[in-house]
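re: ur question from earlier - yeah i can do the single chain one, its not a big deal. heres the input i used so u can compare w yours
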Amino acid sequence: MTDLRAEQEPGSWRTLLGREHAPVAMVLAGGVLLEASNVYLTTSLLPTIVADIGGAQYYAWTMTTFLVASVISAMLVSRTLTTKGSVNAYVLAFSLFGAGSLLCAASPDMGIFLLGRAVQGLGGGLLAGLGYALIQRSLPEQLWARGAALVSAMWGVGNLLGPTVGGLFGQIDVWRPAFAILAGLAVALAALVVRVIPRTAKAQASSPVPTVSLVLLTAAVAAVSLASVVPEGVGTIVAIGAGLVLGVSFIRYERTATSSVLPAVTFARSSSLRWVYITVGILAFGIGTEAFIPLFGQELGGFSPLLAGFLGASLSLGWSVTQMFSANAERGRSVKALTIAGPAVLAAGLAAYAALQESLPATPVLALWFAALFVAGAGIGLAFPHLTVAAFRSVDDQEEAAKAAAGINMVFLIASAFSAALAGVLVSLGEPSMLDSARYLLIAFAAIAVVGVLPARASGRVHDLTVAPDG
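and the output i got, formated as tokens:
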């Protein structure tokens, strides 16, 4: 934990990015940026990859394989951190990600490429989870909110950087060097880890591997991910239904399990951690619209693929920019207000974008599309840093605290999988009208976001205990 001098250090962006903490912040943020950029880079390069090595029938599996592997390793973040220590855990994560990237770069066919994606996913899930878990152990408490904002902002930055880099490589009709560069960056960051990350002691895990929880949750995510692979209609509904049943079974098992993925306090009556997780999940759910926004931009707005891509990135940009300012709030009333406002603002932005949908609208309306999506993303940015800090402060035991912190990333990944599946169903319901598809998707997701105000209010009990009072 931090020493007395660090605890008394004033929290500010200048302090976080200053000489003492900048190297640590670079590793924490860099790992998540590597994971996020890889997601969007691969998506943008897939047409080029398939044209080179074939395997068009496995197109959707490239993301499904990566996501399922990421969820598996995300569930093991706290255990890996406890048993291997901070430095070895991070080196393992970067090594897996780098090895997977090299496998992808050298793939002679789609089978090897999918194997590389799975190994990448194992490393990526650890990287993203460690990025949150080690904020608590590597930075003074006054910098937690800003550290969380910086780390989570990398998902938005990755949404801009990944397609840009992927588009450049795709433009010259090559893709292997892109994955080789990812591997090189993983090696460089692993070397930096050894130099700057504070070492934590290794210890025996206090409980056995939570095998049942791992199986249930992995199966749930796999089932939902299959919704994008199976034929539309009954198969999609069955896949999502199976995912929901398995997800509920996971929660029921976790409530009484002696060996669990989530910290035990999650289900305690006196704890509001479960409301923190639910709010995080609903905010992450809103991001599920991003996959289809470029499609709406091209089909309804008449945008070029490049401009449609930037339309899709507007939500991530709003999230990334806003939380840099939101993280500055420290007083109890302000933090609670921002947390509750988050889902409401997300809903307002999505609803406004839905109301503005029309075929080939005038230029002012197109500009409002960008503004509405930026506002929707701002809702995520208002609340996310403070929800993350609330999870950090929910428990005192180090192993349980690591579970609570890693749970933020795990909930984020799971919600993203479910939201992507539901988004696909809603878009299919509107076919053949793209306008109806857009409205169904956006109105439904705006309604889900509004519901998020309730758990956000309940999560305020955590803030009452963990932030400075007003005045």
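Confidence is low (pLDDT under 50) at residues 1-9, 463-471. not sure if urs matches, ping me
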